[in-house]
Structure formats: structure tokens, C-alpha cells
Amino acid sequence: MEILDDKIRIWLESAKFVKPVSGVYVLYNRKKEAIYIGESQNLQQTFTKYVDTDFENNLCKQKTHSYQREFVDNTKERKEILLEDFKDEHNGKIPICNDIIMTSSH
């Protein structure tokens, strides 16, 4: 299920070409299930780091097959809205990789 209005892009084919601007992004697995909702002040820098380090060895994010992105100024607020909307549509659950991060940081 697509979360953003942006078209779904194949990860390795286009991740290196994203603009160096702030925004939010959604990572999807092969089944087009959202596995992570993230935000960055510089999408190009974040995506380049993900490509160069294989998602910083994050096994959950390594399942990424495609993504969407949206350029916004207030990234933290937009990410929170997307997470809340996702929870509303998925019986209170958040994407699996967000859940793993939240669980391991508490």
C-alpha cells in the first residue's frame, strides 16, 4: 500500500539520484509493504549512506526493494503524521523497521 503521493521507485536504480534536500521517505519490501518511515534533513546524504553501507548493516532495512519520498521542510512533524496515519490504518502497529528501532531504543 502506497503511503505518499510520490511514485514508487526501485531502490538501487534511483536512490543515488535523489536531491540533497530535506524530506520524508517510506521504504517498502518486495511485497510493497511499508517497512520503514523515515525523515532526513538531506535525503541525498542519507540515501548515499544507506547504499554505501547496506543500510548501515540494518537487517530489517536491507529488505528494501523500493521507496517513496516527499520533499518537506518540517520533516519530524511530517514523519510523525505519517506514522500516526499508518497506525490508524494498521490497528495501532507501525512499520516493522520503525518498531524494531523504537523497541531497541527503550
Task: Explain briefly what this protein structure is.
The protein is of the alpha+beta class.
The computed structural class is alpha+beta
Mean pLDDT: 93
Strand content: 15-25%
Broad CATH class:
Alpha Beta
Largest sheet: 4 strands, antiparallel
Quickly give the CATH architecture. 3-Layer(aba) Sandwich
Work out the radius of gyration: 13 Å
Residue share in helices? 25-40%
Counted by DSSP, the helix tally is: 4
**Count of β-strands:** 4
The CATH topology corresponds to: GIY-YIG endonuclease
As laid out across the biggest beta sheet, the strand order is 1-4-2-3
Number of domains: 1
What series of H and E elements makes up the topology?
EHEEHEHH
Shape category: globular
> Which superfamily, in CATH terms, is the homologous superfamily?
GIY-YIG endonuclease
Protein name: UvrABC system protein C
Domain GIY-YIG: 23-74
Any overview of this molecule?
This is UvrABC system protein C. It comes from Marine Group I thaumarchaeote SCGC AAA799-N04. With 106 residues, the protein is α+β, with helices and mostly antiparallel strands. The longest helix is centred in the last third of the chain and has 15 residues. The model has no long low-confidence stretch (mean pLDDT 93). It has one domain: 3-Layer(aba) Sandwich (GIY-YIG endonuclease), CATH 3.40.1440.10. β2 and β3 form a beta hairpin. It is 37% helix and 20% strand. It has a 4-stranded antiparallel beta sheet with strand order 1-4-2-3. The chain has 4 helices and 4 strands; from the N terminus they run βαββαβαα.
